[in-house]
DNA sequence: TGAGTGTGTGTAACCGGTTACAGACGGAGG
DNA sequence: CCTCCGTCTGTAACCGGTTACACACACTCA
């Protein structure tokens, strides 16, 4: 492996000069620069990033901690982060937490020791104290879907409650008379907010009943299971708002197996807007979060923070939008 | 940040001794060890991984280069790699190549400069010369789904051709009389092998015709589009073997939209066994590769290589298996 | 002519670890 | 009593970069 000293020797200069040429910092004479560049060329020299990191205290690496890369929401997010990081000259370490607190702690420690430049937390069991710890260690972080904490870190969220209201309104406008909700895990803030939106939208309607809310754990299987119990209690449900697309897909499956036609018998609306929601038949109406955009923004802000740029807004709330597809089609009544 | 010298000072020993305690190497007196450990505790000292990497020429980081993390096949693979790496004390950098040669070159260079310990290539445009380059730089690599190269690197593959034969046989056994193939991109070796398997299985049947093979680009959209042209030319097709699950899902969608019942009118079989193939209605029969197992094996072998262990087999060919689900159900005739 | 400024370059300390080597000590063996 | 060896510990070089500081030189301006 050729080092900066080899280059210096070949060009007949000191290592400091080579370093200056490399980084374009300080003064370097015109012809000296040429000689150094020639030597670099000839030796096919590439600076050693690790040594650089040690001297700089910068690694050019960011990490993203997420529950599970196999969840399409997070793989899209990860993709966005990596694309953005690459453009900014960063590489990305990814960590699957499975929402396990211990696992997150482990990652945080490992990443700190690695001099990671910054972390994007898309994992849910992240606590306030983790944020404090990161601040103490001066590691910039960006978190997704957290309640606005007092701590100085960028938070990216989307309008979960407003989106849920949109979903229910849309179902009503297309002719639904009794709308159920398949809810995500109660401990997740996104699930809470979407449930809140649903409650707000159905408030005051005589048909509403608490038992129209069923848990679906944000998973396909959960969505599947939720449906059967629901339809037993409420055979006349004609609209379902699922707290995320995975549960909606599960519900769709279960309904089709039960012989219910979508949207003829029951309309179905998801939340998230993962690519997969286009892959079902019928395609799924959903409240789309700008997932890619969230990932991009998270990475952009993190990198800005790393570069020490003052970042104005600390909480970014992104718009969601209704993507109307065939799982909810207007019914004449 | 507390350093090894702080610990040494506090324990009243030299840095060498602290290092020995940390690594359990060399001789250390019993009581000295206790003193050092106490100092480490009290200062909450954690060794700096970057400095360690510089001295060791080891980073404890591996990379996985894949076409696109949003493709469920690769996200499952990535998940397996990360799980295995974590168990072995490694972290994982991931790189989306989009099968772009230039992008891969870029990553390879960046990763080399970062002293990466090893690389898993699941990307397709990787050339023989890249492998040579990695060997020159003594960076262990494992590649997936490549032709057995002469070069000294572990190759993990699965029985694509045999799997394709299984698929076609299965379709015939369940009553299909005319079976089409939606093929992946011709430049990908996996697609080639599956096509070869299809050809082998249909050889000699009078109903076979070259135009039963249609391209589907390994994507959902590709699968969708493939179907319409196919059914125009061959309205009597009653079985389709898709080269991967994504195309099968696309085909399923298109067929359902055309009013064809699956499996009543047409049977459908995919390839890969991604989790998503269970999420359709009907669920998809598929030739399952042990995706997680492939990722796990890739990581295990890579880590073994990194640790300098002699690895016996250089080519690992994993079994595929038929997962029979509702998209192919036996029809009485 | 001398001070002051801008430019170009080298020396050496530093980032925070690992480790080769040397020295000190105590006990066993001749 | 001397030698040899195993145990324990410290000094300092090294991994491969960055950069503070010192110095040299040329040029401008009073």
Automatic annotation (TrEMBL), chains A, B:
Pfam families: LacI, Peripla_BP_1. The lineage of its organism: Bacteria, Bacillati, Bacillota, Bacilli, Bacillales. It comes from Melghirimyces profundicolus. InterPro entries: HTH_LacI, Lambda_DNA-bd_dom_sf, Peripla_BP/Lac1_sug-bd_dom, Peripla_BP_I. CDD domains: HTH_LacI (cd01392), PBP1_LacI_sugar_binding-like (cd06267). GO terms for molecular function: DNA-binding transcription factor activity; transcription cis-regulatory region binding. Keywords: DNA-binding, Repressor, Transcription, Transcription regulation. This is LacI family transcriptional regulator. Residues 2-56 form the HTH lacI-type domain. Signal peptide: none annotated.
